[in-house]
């Protein structure tokens, strides 16, 4: 092989689980004579040599990527906040639906209320223009908890489920932020007090998160039994679908058909359940499907294959079993693909400042979807997020 045709691969993902998988994929797909592993760009025979960078985002040499766009490929786009930050994604979807009111995103993405707040005392100011929230709270005032409209709070820049809470009133939302406020400076042993407060609230402080979104909570979700669990009403849990997509160039998006079903650690309880008041940390385990939040014992059996889910849905607690056909998973997958495609289109065409796909880059994204049950008790289809 002519040396100029050889691919020099800088593979340093800094993850002991992912790194060998990348190397194994290269070995499987490329003949050994076509590429050479290097540990630094300085090892290139010349700056214009063919280069694959597959490293952590912070380690990508974007200057080299831009200066040698015809010979260099990297595993991440420079700017993609429109997709990976919740409050940016919320704006991306809202702008697209405003411009295209018949978009499928109107059905498959819950509307969001965005706000910024540093401390609980400033929450009133942060919610001045949160009309949807205030109207919902007004409707909830005379209702029992089980009849209220429930909301889910998500920090815009956190991951692994950190800071997710449920609420149905202004008082409940205020209480959440008051819990996250740091202790006052005049407390004795201030350092220990701050440490204890962080431990009690998963290390969360409002001033560190700042950006938040609130969305109508998906209730009821479709409930299924986790893998290798008896199919009984007591074992039914909330779950979400995790799918991986690869975006290449500017822009093609491919959805990976093998998908995961990630289950909550506990059987589902409605958002107004008494357990959420008496022991919220434990009760939230029935609502949070992020397996990274689960203890090792809870995580066992909480992950299954989407295509191995039952063709016939079990009876759902408290509601009629949703109408469905034996190919409901194919229907969900079709909706998922369409929603994914339009989400990326909305980011690329409507949020060019915050998503800039490059022709010589690619990126793997993990997307989460839920399956809802409509008011008419039909299978509602996929909804982005949870």
UniProtKB/TrEMBL annotation:
<feature type="compositionally biased region" description="Acidic residues">
    <location>
        <begin position="178"/>
        <end position="191"/>
    </location>
</feature>
<dbReference type="InterPro" id="IPR027746">
    <property type="entry name" value="TTL"/>
</dbReference>
<protein>
    <recommendedName>
        <fullName>Tubulin-tyrosine ligase</fullName>
    </recommendedName>
</protein>
<feature type="region of interest" description="Disordered">
    <location>
        <begin position="178"/>
        <end position="201"/>
    </location>
</feature>
<dbReference type="Pfam" id="PF03133">
    <property type="entry name" value="TTL"/>
</dbReference>
<dbReference type="InterPro" id="IPR004344">
    <property type="entry name" value="TTL/TTLL_fam"/>
</dbReference>
<dbReference type="GO" id="GO:0000932">
    <property type="term" value="C:P-body"/>
</dbReference>
């Amino acid at each position: 092989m002519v040396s100029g045709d050889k691919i020099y691969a800088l593979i340093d993902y800094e993850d002991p689980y992912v790194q060998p998988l990348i190397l194994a994929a290269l070995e499987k797909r490329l003949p050994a004579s076509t590429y050479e592993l290097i540990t630094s760009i300085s090892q290139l025979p010349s700056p214009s040599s063919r280069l694959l960078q597959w490293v952590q985002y912070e380690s990508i040499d974007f200057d080299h990527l831009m200066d040698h766009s015809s010979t260099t490929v990297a595993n991440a786009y420079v700017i993609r906040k429109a997709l990976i930050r919740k409050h940016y994604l919320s704006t991306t979807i809202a702008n697209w639906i405003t411009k295209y009111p018949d978009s499928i995103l109107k059905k498959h993405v819950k509307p969001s209320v965005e706000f910024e707040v540093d401390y609980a005392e400033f929450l009133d100011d942060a919610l001045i223009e949160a009309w949807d929230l205030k109207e919902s709270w007004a409707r909830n005032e005379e209702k029992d908890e089980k009849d209220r409209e429930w909301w889910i709070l998500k920090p815009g820049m956190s991951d692994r489920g950190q800071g997710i809470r449920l609420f149905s009133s202004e008082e409940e939302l205020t209480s959440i932020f008051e819990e996250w406020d740091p202790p006052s400076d005049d407390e004795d042993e201030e350092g220990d007090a701050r440490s204890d407060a962080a431990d009690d609230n998963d290390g969360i402080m409002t001033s560190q998160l700042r950006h938040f979104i609130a969305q109508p909570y998906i209730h009821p979700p479709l409930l299924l039994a986790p893998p290798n669990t008896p199919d009984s009403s007591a074992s039914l849990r909330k779950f979400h679908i995790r799918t991986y997509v690869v975006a290449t160039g500017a822009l093609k998006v491919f959805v990976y058909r093998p998908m995961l079903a990630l289950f909550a650690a506990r059987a589902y309880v409605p958002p107004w359940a008494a357990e959420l008041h008496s022991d919220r940390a434990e009760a939230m385990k029935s609502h949070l499907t992020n397996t990274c939040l689960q203890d090792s014992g809870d995580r066992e059996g909480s992950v299954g294959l989407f295509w191995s889910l039952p063709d016939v849905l079990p009876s759902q607690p408290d509601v009629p079993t949703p109408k469905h056909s034996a190919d409901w998973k194919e229907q969900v997958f079709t909706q998922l693909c369409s929603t994914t495609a339009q989400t990326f289109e909305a980011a690329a065409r409507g949020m060019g400042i915050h998503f800039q796909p490059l022709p010589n880059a690619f990126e793997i994204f993990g997307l989460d979807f839920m399956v809802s049950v409509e008011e008419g008790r039909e299978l509602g289809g996929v909804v982005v997020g949870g």
